[in-house]
Amino acid sequence: MEQIKLANHYRFGSSSEKDTYYEQTDLFFNEVEATADITKPEPEFEEIVPKPYKRKKQKGKREDDLSKFPVVTIEHKLSEEQCQCECNNQMHVVTTESTKLLKFIPAHFEVEEHIVYVYGCHKCDRMIRADKPDTLLRGSIATPSLVAAIMNGKYVNAVPLARQEAEFERYDINLSRQTMSNWMLRCSEEYLSLLYDELKNFLLSCKVIQADETRIQVLNEEGRKATDQSWMWVYRSGEMCNAPPVILFNYETSRSGYHPKQFLEGYSGFLTSDGYSAYHKLPDEIIVSGCFVHARRKFHDCLKVLPKNQHKGTTADQAIKRIALLYKIEAFLKDKPAKERYEERLKQSKPVLDAYFEWLKTLAGGVDTSSLIGKAINYSLNQKEYLENYLLDGNIAIDNSATERAIKPFAVGRKNFLFANTPNGAAASAIIYSIVETAKTNGLRPYDYLLHVLTEIPKHYKGTSHKFLKDLLPWSDKLPDNCKSKKSK
């Protein structure tokens, strides 16, 4: 019955977990003794009259929002006849009234025609040719602006190539999805893969990495059925580290533990993940910490199968409140330096953690292990070693929520494009998703950043040195201002 109710909830109910409260007023700790103060005088009660609500005026906000766009001035004047007053006197301008509106101009296309002049000497027959920049893709009409727009459409706005093809046709442009797919593959392999490798090197130098994985279906893969599931692994720099955020996607054919081991080869530090056993088999140089969101979710599932009026006082309810206290401590320490966060966690969080696990041990023997509450209790107890590891360093997050948020754009896109056609296409998607998601989380405009990258890399990538890639990283101060959103500025 629990399984049926839980399945129905996942199918028809809300996916939010916010309906379970976080208040700490009835926790089973010595709250009364800890908060009592007999020297404090009793409060004097008085009638409180609520103040009338007044909408805050955001003076100048509209002008500030519109200031970065070009202005086309349209003047509205009266004719000479209309300026003739009833008293036969000519009226003159006293003042003007200005109103600003925001106009949208649909996408338009231009053809770049490059004409190269060739010069010759009549005396010695010597000839020279004017320089012409290399095209983005040899033998193709693709330009950085066009490819960046297609990438932005698919990987940022989740518009599949088939829908973009149809939109291009409305503008009398015949661009098949096969052509666009080829552009995505070639640009990712020739150019963006270089930036991806540079980002990976930076990621492996971070003290904390977070990881997760999600499914992807690839239709045409040698030796596999179209219905077989492949996996998109996601790695990101620790959200609490004082370093620029990096998000990397990595396509693999399976969920085997070999894949994170290979991707993280040579890495030494902390890895935050869910309870998947593959992460627990990594080399000793990698210390794995668990995710308290997953532990809490198990107890939240127990409440989903109960009427709301029966939640209070249940084991699941008590467990969620204990975990909520840990999060309340984290909220208090959020803006503290890593060293101070580490010290305060040992003082405040460790006693709560110890009490939480000791309490679960007293319950473990008296519940059915096949029930939801039994599974929830055993999950926390089995993951105890990893759930406690966030106490080892102030740079480690209490959960893996940041990585789950990083996966969401890919999951949204997957609902639209459904599957990848080939492994090469899936690998190219992993690279492009990595570039745009890292750009977004660093406060960049994805289209402008892709345009800049696809313009600059072809100028240098044939050289023996790739030092120029440092200037293209999403946090580089060499990036043009138009790549940065107003918020990041």
Number of helices: 15
Structural class: alpha/beta
Residue fraction in strands: 5-15%
- Succession of helices and strands: HHHEEHHHEEEHEEHHHHHHHH
Distance N terminus to C terminus? Answer: 54 Å
- Please compute the radius of gyration using only Cα atoms: 30 Å
Helix content: 40-55%
Q: Give the total of beta strands.
A: 7
Unreliable spans are 20-35, 42-50
Mean pLDDT: 86
Order of strands across the widest beta sheet?
5-4-3-6-7
Description:
The chain has a 5-stranded mixed beta sheet. Strands 1-2 form a two-stranded antiparallel sheet. It is of the alpha/beta class and 489 residues long. Among the domains are: 142-277 and 409-489, no CATH class; 292-399, no CATH class. A hairpin with a 6-residue loop joins strand 1 and strand 2 (127-129). The chain has 15 helices and 7 strands.
Could you list some keywords that capture this structure?
about 500 residues, alpha/beta, 5-stranded mixed beta sheet, two-stranded antiparallel ribbon, 7 strands, about 40% helix, about 10% strand
